[in-house]
Amino acid sequence: MQLDKDTLRKLRGLILFTLVILVGLLRLDVVLGAAKFILHILFPFLLGGAIAFVLSVPMGRIEKRCFGGQKPGSMLEKAAAPLSLVLTLIFVLAIFSLVVVVVLPELGRTIATLGKTLPEKVPLLLEKVEELFANNPELVHYIEEIEAALNWEDILNQMVDFFRFGANTMLDSTISVAKGIASGVGTFFIAFVFACYILLQRETLGRQSRKLLFAYLKKERAEEILRICSLTHRIFTNFLTGQCLEAVILGVMFFLAMTILRFPFAVLVGVLIAFTALIPIFGAFIGCAVGAFLILTVNPPQALAFIVLFLILQQIEGNLIYPHVVGGSVGLPSIWVLAAVSLGGSLFGVVGMLVFIPIVSVLYTLLKENVQQRLEKKHLDIK
Fold first, then answer.
1. Residues 222 and 368 in one domain
2. What pLDDT, on a 0 to 100 scale, did the predictor assign at position 376?
3. For residues 236 and 357, what is the distance between their CA atoms, to the nearest angstrom?
4. Of 39, 78, 284, 354, which one has the greatest count of Cβ atoms within 10 A?
5. Is residue 207 part of a domain?
6. In angstroms, rounded to a whole number, what is the distance separating the alpha carbons of residues 280 and 323?
7. What's the total number of domains in the chain?
8. Which of 61, 55, 45 shows the shortest CA–CA distance to 93?
9. Left, alpha or beta for 262 (phi > 0: left; psi -120 to 50: alpha)?
10. Residues 232 and 152 reside in one and the same domain
11. Which of 184, 156, 163 minimizes the C-alpha distance to 47?
12. pTM for the full model?
C-alpha cells in the first residue's frame, strides 16, 4: 500500500505523540516536577494576566464613556489608555479605602470597648460558675475524677520540652513566614507591573496575537479560536459585572433590613457583606461572622436575631437573586451556576468558585452550539 506525504506526516505526528505520552507516564514524577517548576516561574505573569483582565472591565467602560469619539491620532486619543488606567486604579483604591475606613475603625472601637467591659463582666461570670458548681455537686465530683486521672508530672515535662526545643522551631517558622510574605509582595508587584503593561498595550498585543494565529494555523482554525476567545472574554466580563451587581444588591438588602429592625452597625455590616459577597454564594458568611461578633458586644439577643436574618436573606440571595443575576449575565441556567460554584469550591477553594462559573458557561455555550449544528445536519427540529 502506497501512502501519500500527508498521510505519512499524520502518522509521524501520531507516533511522536504516542511516544511523548508513554515517556510522560513512565516518568510521571519528572513531568510533574518540571510542570511545577515552570508554573512557579510563570506564576507572576499568569497572575498579572488575571489582574489585567479584571481591571480591563472598568477600564474599558471608562475609556468608552470618557474618551470615546476622539479623532484618530489626536493627543487625547493617544492618552486615552493611560488616563483610563489611572482612573481605574483610583476607582479600585477608592473602593478598598472605603471598606478600610468604614470597617477597621469600627472593629477597633468595638475591641477597645470589649477590653474595657470585659474586666467588669469577669466577676459576674465567676459568680455564675460558682453558683453552677454549688447547685451541681456531681459536676465537682466529675472534675475531681478528671484531675485524679491526669499525670501532672508528665504534663509538666512535656511543657518543659516544648519550651526547650520549640523556640528554634518557632524561630524557623517565623523566618519562613517572613520570607513567604516578602516573596508574595514581590510576586504581586511583578504581576501588577506586568498587568499595567498589558493594559497599556492591549491593542498591539491583540493585533500581534491575531497575526500569529493566522500565520501558523489554517484560516478556519484561527477564526474558530478567535471566536472562542471572544466568547470567553464576553462571558468573563459579564460574570464580573454580574458578581459586583449581586454584591451591591446583597449589601443594600442587609443595610435596609438592619435599619428597619433597628440593628446596630447597619452601614458597617452592609458594606462588609457587600465586599465579602464578591466570593460567590459563600463569601457573605465571612461578613456574617464579623457582623454577629460586633452586635454580640452590644446586644447578645440581637446577635442571634441577626444570624436568623442573615440565614433568611442568604436563602433569598442564593436561590433567587444570585442564579438569575449572575446566571443571566453569563447565559448559564441557575442549576448549573450552583453546580459550578460547588464543584469549583470543592476542587480549588475560593479561586475555583470565582473561575468555574464563567468556564462552565463557556463550555455550556460551545456544547449548545455543537448540539444545534449536529441536529441541523441530521435535519432534526427537537424542541
1. yes
2. 81
3. 9
4. 284
5. no
6. 10
7. 2
8. 55
9. left
10. no
11. 184
12. 0.67
Match 441536529 to its residue by C-alpha cell: 375
Of 120 and 185, the one with more pLDDT: 185
Asked whether residue 73 falls in the same domain as residue 130, the answer is yes
pLDDT exceeds cutoff 70 at 261: yes
Tell me the pLDDT band of 355, cut-offs 50, 70 and 90: confident
Name the CA dihedral angle for 272, 277, 281, 283, rounded to a multiple of 10 degrees. Answer: -50
Q: What is the pLDDT of residue 73?
A: 66
What's the rounded mean pLDDT across residues 107-114? 70
Q: What is the pLDDT of residue 160?
A: 61
Task: Tell me whether residue 309 is in a domain.
Answer: yes
Same domain, 183 and 247: no
- Domain span at residue 230 reads 218-377
Residue 321 identity (one-letter amino acid): I
Contact present, 242 and 325 (Cβ < 8 Å): yes
Instruction: Single out the residue of 224, 290, 288 nearest to residue 254, CA to CA.
Output: 288
Q: Say whether pLDDT at 27 is over 80.
A: no
Distances in Å between the Cα of 224 and the Cα atoms of 46, 145, 188, 360, 367 are 24, 75, 34, 19, 14
Contact assessment for residue 270 and residue 254, using Cβ atoms and an 8 Å cutoff: yes
How long is the chain?
Answer: 383
Domain membership of residue 284 (yes or no) is yes
Shared domain for 256 and 149, answered yes or no, is no
Give rounded-to-5 percent helix, strand, coil for the chain: 90, 0, 10
Cα(306)–Cα(288) distance, rounded to whole angstroms? 8
